[in-house]
Amino acid sequence: MKRYLAIVTALVVAAGSLLAAAPTHAQKSDIVIGIQCDRTGATQIVGTVLCPGLHDYVALVNRKGGVEGHKIKAIEIDHEYKVPPGVESYERHKKEGAVSIAVYGTPHIYALAAAPPPPMASAIPTFSPSPRRTGRRRRPRWTSRRSSSAAA
Question: Which CATH superfamily is domain 2-151 in?
Answer without folding.
Answer: Response regulator (3.40.50.2300)
